[in-house]
Amino acid sequence: LLACKLPNPGRMTLAPMLKQDGRLIGDFSLANLGSPNSNGEGWFLAGSGIAEQYHMRWFEEHLPQDGSVK
Known about the structure:
The chain is of the alpha+beta class and 70 residues long. It has one helix at 52-62, and strands spanning 12-18, 24-32, 43-47. A three-stranded antiparallel beta sheet has the order 1-2-3, with no helix packed on it.
């Protein structure tokens, strides 16, 4: 769960990521890569370099096998 308002196309926001029990997994930056004039959206999620291995392990353990996200 990203506890933030989703940014508008072409914008970025800080996005704390929470576990199901509400504890913090990490702080991320979330960018909406869609252009202001397009209907399509693309997303980019970046975290701190020092926590990269922890975050990658968490995603590998929790994301569906088909790679889909909600």
